[in-house]
Design goal:
8 strands; Rossmann fold; 15% strand; alpha/beta; 9 helices; eight-stranded mixed β-sheet
């Protein structure tokens, strides 16, 4: 594994981690863009598994997005434009010609490649898994204000409850009354993973607003590469499948794949079936 710091266009820095053949050429490198509330370290098992699945001579590059891990905080005026510029920075630093986005990182990947269309930064291949994209207002974002208020008030349990209800509608958790769920979340927030969630909540407010506040229009994504691969988990919340199918229909030549055993966290969990499917896509 190779670790380095990459300077950004606005004076910040990104922590970048490379697994596999760290000197691999760009056409054999995959940049992984992680989801909300997750650090590059969380993606280490997946990155190692994917590098192994891709085979000899391949490298997987994963970086801490702004406000997490060893990267600098979200700057003043942070927006999706910041994320897009950072994708460009990482591609320049690694020479990578392929991109994989997970969850909100899928939104970043899609918006970045949309902007890169027709330029030298347009990747040869793009895959997203459970991309968290607000297509034509398809996502209910009314909970964001209450989530932000709870974060600002330092009420971890309530913030986690509102996040779970907002991002996992129609699940058992979403049907639990908020005061009860907030109490449960306050208890589980003491676990290692949820402590990380708690620390990243202020960053999460910024990135969720950057991705969700303005609805993207499905027709705008028609400029994505013809071989864009839309993937969803069979056990993920249903709106990820709806979004992926709508995007797949809008991008000529794209492909759609449902991973039957997949759930929303399957990528950081390095689910074997998903790692294999992703590796096959990039190698094909």
């Amino acid at each position: 594994m190779k670790e380095q710091e990459v300077p950004t266009h606005d004076g910040g820095r990104l922590a970048l981690y490379s697994y596999g053949a760290v000197d691999a050429p760009g056409e054999r490198r995959v940049v992984v863009i992680g989801g909300a509330f997750l650090t590059a370290l969380i993606y280490r098992p997946f990155s190692l598994a994917l590098a192994k699945g891709l085979g000899e001579g391949w490298c997987v590059d994963v970086y801490d997005r702004r406000g997490r891990g060893n990267s600098t905080d979200q700057p003043a005026g942070y927006s999706m434009a910041t994320e897009i510029a950072d994708v460009r920075t990482v591609m320049d630093a690694t020479g990578a010609r392929t991109v994989l986005g997970h969850s909100l990182g899928g939104s970043v990947a899609l918006n970045a490649v949309q902007e890169f269309a027709g330029t030298a930064h347009e990747p040869d291949k793009l895959a997203v898994y459970d991309a968290a994209v607000n297509i034509d207002g398809s996502l209910d974002t009314s909970w964001l204000d209450d989530f932000e208020a709870a974060v600002n008030a330092g009420n971890v349990g309530q913030a986690l409850a509102r996040l779970k209800k907002g991002m996992q509608p129609a699940t058992t958790l979403s049907r639990i009354p908020e005061p009860v769920l907030a109490g449960l979340m306050a208890l589980v927030s003491r676990t290692k993973v949820n402590r990380m969630f708690r620390e990243l909540m202020p960053t999460g407010v910024g990135e969720l607003r950057a991705a969700y506040d303005e609805a993207d229009r499905v027709r705008d994504f028609g400029v994505l590469p013809a071989n864009t691969h839309f993937m969803v988990g069979g056990k993920s919340p249903g709106y990820y499948k709806v979004t992926a199918q709508r995007l797949h229909a809008a991008v000529p030549g794209s492909t759609f794949e449902l991973s039957p055993k997949g759930f929303h966290g399957s990528i950081p969990a390095a689910l074997n079936e998903l790692v294999t499917d992703i590796a096959e896509y990039f190698k094909s």
